[in-house]
Specification:
Elements: H1 6-24, H2 31-54, H3 60-89, H4 92-96, H5 99-122, E1 126-128, E2 134-136, H6 141-160, H7 167-189, H8 196-212, H9 214-217, H10 227-240, E3 244-251, H11 254-261, H12 263-284, E4 288-294, E5 297-302, H13 307-321, E6 324-327, E7 330-333, E8 336-343, H14 350-363, E9 370-372, H15 373-376, H16 380-386, H17 388-398, E10 401-410, E11 415-427, E12 431-433, H18 435-445, H19 448-463, H20 466-470, E13 475-479, H21 482-485, H22 490-500, E14 508-513, H23 514-519, H24 521-533, E15 537-543, H25 550-555, E16 560-563, H26 565-569, H27 574-589, E17 593-596, H28 602-610, E18 615-617, E19 625-626, H29 627-637
Parallel strand pairs: 8-9, 11-13, 13-14, 14-15, 15-16, 16-17, 17-18
Antiparallel strand pairs: 1-2, 3-5, 3-8, 4-5, 6-7, 10-11, 10-18, 10-19, 11-12
Helix pairs in contact: 1-2, 1-8, 2-3, 2-8, 3-5, 3-6, 5-6, 7-8, 11-12, 12-13, 17-18, 19-22
Length: 644
């Protein structure tokens, strides 16, 4: 048999190009990738051995050995193609956990190896005759039967699980079968041209571009699996009902780190974290999919670990991530939370899981950095956090919101001349719900606008009562959320509430935070200045909690600056006291009225009184009170002002 080996040589070139491109490109290391590598190596081996077995210039024993190695690598290719299909479909766990399926996949392969072992003694399958030519034996068709078996096994798997796959991947994998059948038929009748190895190489090109798709599967900024790859994996998990444990971890102080490092160095930090976590994964010899999801959140998916192993693994991850890092000689501290979940049992759908991924850290107990979802899911705290949207909706429809008022003491007048209106939510199911929980949730889902209207209307109604005014209350402070500050109709809305309850613009004071002032400066400036022109005064709330923007204090028409409780808490620190003294001096020189929040004892009150502050608010005088109790407080204290 005189064979023309041009196609084999071309196949080697193609396979080497595929292999080199895989080695030099960043690819994800997982089941399908490793099997794909084995397909390339086996295809290369079978092609080389095919050439060697046909080279008559080589000694007989080299050609004979090469022929056996060709059959061995070709048969190994068959089973690896089936394993590759199983891996791409995502049903590897069904093979791994079922002895019958393992036997069904590997027994024909073991049988074919046995046939190779006995062939030297009987030549039933093939041989090289005395003329040096390859010759088929009477039982060579057995290899054809085994080839057909594996083709049918792969075809059955594809058709059985076609709905779990992307259409493009399904089509490409299905095309392998008619191509292979066509080549085998061609090879049967035209034996001079060896096309099998070349067709393998061509099929691997298609698999690389349309199934492996390394660029799509890799997050180029962080060098782990991408969000797209994670979502595709999630859909497979739910479609094939594959049990997986997932370790989620989120960088909590991402915004601060982004500002401090800049976006490029922040991604460098994320790559450093990802590399350290990858090192732990490799040390533990875990079979996982490590993905970057979004917003500095990572996910580690594993089929192999039980819950106890995942707990230990999660604690390792938390210890590795929650520490100091050095990025280009800059020291940064990373804060994170870690949560372990089980899929698909913990969530009904992919969308439910992805929603949880976006805010899981807000639903964990504050004191816990590592949590197992199944262990916290039954707690009242978790249920309440998980149902915040429903709680807020119920509060709006059933009027579960209540307004409380915390008295504000005037040092100059020695009486309580105002108060801060504070919103409380008393739910019929969960009782008291902290504003720290429901306010951010309401801002996120848009309910904050309805809530803001309720507060403005309620405060104006209360301030408009004759009893409140007779007790010496000059104005009430109302907090404006970030979302309210940028409402296009804010000015007309507030004017409408004042008119509805016959109030002057001097009888309410609006509080904004530094965050709100900087959210959309042009819109906020416009709203604040128009309201100030109407005669409404403004306070800057929580001054000192962030990077206080002095320019904002000077450019906005702010009458009052409220020093945050953090100043009070650290007043005994000498360095902090120096900051406090100089801050108050600066604000007084700017003709700002100074209100100190969070005062809880007489010593603190006297200290800030000596510094010349104007107003004091805190538990030293009173906690926030509902309307009736606030009225009683004023009756008792404004008739006989506290001796201060």
């Amino acid at each position: 048999m005189n064979s023309i080996l041009h196609y084999d040589i071309s196949a080697i070139v193609v396979l080497l190009v595929i292999l080199i491109s895989m080695l030099f490109r960043k690819v994800i290391s997982n089941h399908s990738t490793r099997i794909f590598y084995s397909l390339i190596i086996l295809s290369l081996a079978s092609t080389v051995f095919d050439i060697l077995s046909e080279c008559h210039s080589f000694p007989y024993y080299i050609r004979y050995a090469s022929l056996y190695l060709y059959y061995f690598s070709s048969l190994s290719l068959l089973v690896n193609y089936v394993l590759y299909i199983i891996s791409v479909i995502g049903i590897w766990f069904r093979l791994k956990n079922n002895l019958f399926r393992k036997i069904a996949i590997f027994f024909p392969y073991w049988l074919s190896l046995g046939m190779l072992c006995i062939n030297p003694f009987c030549h039933y399958f093939f041989m090289i005759n005395q003329d040096g030519n390859y010759q088929r034996g009477p039982l060579i068709f057995c290899f054809g039967i085994i080839t057909t078996y594996y083709m049918l096994a792969g075809l059955f798997s594809l058709l059985r699980w076609r709905k779990t796959m992307e259409v493009s991947k399904f089509v490409v994998l299905m095309c392998l079968f008619p191509i292979t059948v066509s080549v085998l038929i061609f090879q049967t009748f035209i034996t001079d041209y060896y096309l099998i190895c070349f067709s393998n190489a061509i099929m691997l090109i298609f698999l690389q571009f349309f199934v492996q798709r390394s660029g799509e599967n890799l997050d180029v900024n962080i060098s782990v699996q991408s969000y797209t790859a994670a979502v595709n994996n999630l859909h497979t998990i739910y479609k094939v009902r594959r049990n997986e444990s997932v370790v989620l971890f989120k960088i909590l102080n991402e915004q601060l780190l982004r500002r401090y490092l800049g976006i490029d160095d922040y991604y460098l930090l994320l790559r450093t974290i990802a590399n350290d976590v990858t090192r732990i994964i490799k040390t533990e010899r875990r079979e996982v999919d490590f993905c970057y999801l979004h917003d500095s959140t990572f996910g580690i998916f594993s089929e192999d670990m039980d819950m106890d192993q995942m707990r230990l693994f999660a604690n390792e991850i938390e210890a590795e991530v929650n520490r100091d890092f050095t990025v280009k000689k800059m020291d940064v501290n990373v804060s994170s939370k870690v949560c372990v979940v089980r899929l698909p049992s913990d969530f009904d759908s992919v969308s439910a899981f992805l929603t949880f991924v976006g805010n899981f850290f807000t639903k964990m107990p504050e004191e816990q950095n590592v949590a197992i979802l199944s262990e916290i899911a039954g707690t009242k705290d978790f249920k309440m956090k998980n149902e915040l949207d429903s709680i807020i909706s119920r509060a709006i429809s059933e009027k579960n919101f209540q307004l409380y008022y915390q008295p504000i003491y005037s040092i100059k007048e020695k009486k309580f001349v105002s108060s801060e209106a504070l919103l409380r939510l008393i739910d019929v199911k969960y009782g008291f719900v902290s504003p720290a929980l429901f306010i951010p949730a309401a801002e996120k889902n848009g309910a904050i606008h309805q809530i803001g209207d309720f507060v403005l209307d309620g405060v104006c109604r209360f301030m408009g009562t004759k009893e409140v005014q007779e007790l010496g209350v000059e104005y009430i402070e109302v907090n404006l959320s970030t979302a309210q500050c940028i409402e296009p109709d804010l000015v007309s809305k507030i004017s409408g509430f004042l008119a509805k309850h016959n109030l002057s613009t001097k009888q309410i004071n609006l509080e904004i935070t530094e965050t709100a002032a900087d959210f959309d400066p042009s819109v906020v400036d416009k709203n604040v200045k128009q309201l100030a022109q109407l005669g409404i005064s403004f306070s800057l709330d929580d001054y000192g909690t962030g990077y206080s923007n002095i320019k904002r204090v000077t450019t906005l028409p702010l009458s009052i600056v409220k020093l945050d409780k953090s100043f009070v808490d650290e007043m005994h620190d000498k360095m902090m006291w120096t900051v406090i003294v100089n801050t108050i001096t600066m604000l007084k020189q700017m003709n700002k009225i100074i209100l100190v929040e969070g005062v809880e004892d007489e010593e603190t009150f006297r200290a800030f009184e000596k510094l010349g502050c104007d107003y004091i608010q805190g538990y030293y005088f009173s906690k926030p009170l509902p309307e009736k109790e606030y009225i009683e407080f004023l009756k008792k204290n404004n008739r006989k002002p506290k001796n201060a």
